[in-house]
Design a protein that fits this description.
Layout (H helix, E strand, L loop, with lengths): L8 H19 L6 H20 L3 H8 L7 H8 L1 E5 L12 E8 L2 E8 L5 H6 L7 H17 L3 E7 L6 H5 L2 H14 L4 E10 H8 L3 E5 L3 E3 L3 H8 L6 H8 L3 H7 L4 E3 L10 H19 L4 H13 L8
Parallel strand pairs: 3-4, 4-5, 5-6, 5-7, 6-8
Antiparallel strand pairs: 1-2, 2-3
């Protein structure tokens, strides 16, 4: 069942009317509604195109958080074969907000690591809404160390509002765990491709996204803070999130212009949630291309190139 965002109300009305007509026709075989329903389809398609060609930064935030967008677990299931999940940080516990393990991508071995939000109430609670605790980042470090040891490329799938800010996480060294994960990204001697598939929030995302190539889906977001959090700090009013979203320059298009990310993957019309298969296939092609560009580089060349990339960041698009 299609789930509509608040700015899609007009679209919901048109598509709902078309479906009502077709439902009546299914009950009465003599009723011919296809011409009228077709006109409604044309209007809804035109409106959908207009809406998604002119999304504001805040509307992109809403699309990036859409519950029906493909999640990390969906990408892993469709893009990789022979996936063998690995659990635990070998120190404290298993963090279900972070999933990862060994797999094959285009029949070549890789390590895949993803942030998983969950898709229903039970799984969202189990996954802590994609907000990792220190154990999740330490598990990611463990997996990246394995990749470094064997020279296996790493692919990360980023979708989190940020790291979990709870008392227990802070007591167990949340900031240190994030820093260690970011450091491991920089130390890795194998290619690291990071893909922002939904929401890339704060250091919780950076700890997975400090890669040779950073890919973003067209309607995903990537920012140092959520618009609501930014509005609460700057204006003391979370309702100013629309202004904050515009000021943060968190869209894929803004970040590509600033040189923060490398590739923007076009989404199906209406967002990845409307055609999950096409969205996943777009990501497949982007990862394949970027891995091919990095193939054959030595471990030292990869480290040097990655470090240079992030040290130089900020010089492009500013002035």
């Amino acid at each position: 069942m299609q789930s509509y965002l608040d700015f899609e109300k007009g679209l919901a009305d048109l598509e709902g009317k078309a479906e009502e007509l077709r439902a009546l026709a299914r009950q009465d075989e003599d009723m011919d509604v296809e011409a009228e329903a077709g006109q409604l389809d044309e209007k809804s398609n035109a409106l959908l195109k207009d809406l998604y060609e002119n999304l504001s930064p805040w509307q992109k935030c809403q699309v990036a958080r859409h519950p029906n967008r493909p999640h990390a677990i969906d990408y892993i299931g469709k893009l990789f074969t022979d996936y063998t999940p690995l659990a635990g940080d070998r120190n404290f516990a298993e963090d279900h907000a972070v999933i990862g393990g060994l797999a094959r991508f285009t029949d070549k071995p890789v390590i895949v690591i993803g942030q998983e939000k969950g898709s229903d109430t039970q799984s969202r609670l189990e996954r802590n809404f994609g907000m990792a605790r220190p154990e999740g980042y330490r598990k990611a470090v463990r997996l990246m160390e394995m990749a470094d040891r064997f020279g296996i490329p790493v692919i990360t799938l980023i979708d989190t509002p940020g790291a979990y800010p709870g008392k227990g996480a802070e007591e167990r060294g949340q900031s240190e765990a994030i820093a260690r994960s970011t450091e491991m990204c920089l130390k890795l001697g194998a290619p690291l491709i990071a893909v922002v598939i939904g929401e890339g929030g704060s250091g919780g995302a950076v700890a997975f996204a400090t890669g040779d190539r950073v890919i973003m889906l067209e309607h995903s977001i990537y920012s140092v803070i959520t618009p609501e959090g930014c509005a609460s700090i700057l204006w003391k009013n979370a309702e100013k999130m629309k202004e904050a979203a515009a000021a943060l320059r968190l869209t894929a298009q803004d970040l590509k212009g600033l040189g923060v990310i490398d590739v923007v993957v076009k989404e199906p019309l209406g967002g990845a949630q409307r055609d999950r298969k096409a969205a996943i296939e777009g990501v497949r092609e982007a990862i394949r291309k970027e891995l091919a560009d990095l193939e054959g580089m030595s471990a030292e060349a990869i480290r040097t190139s990655r470090r240079t990339k992030f040290l130089d960041m900020g010089s492009k698009g500013l002035g």
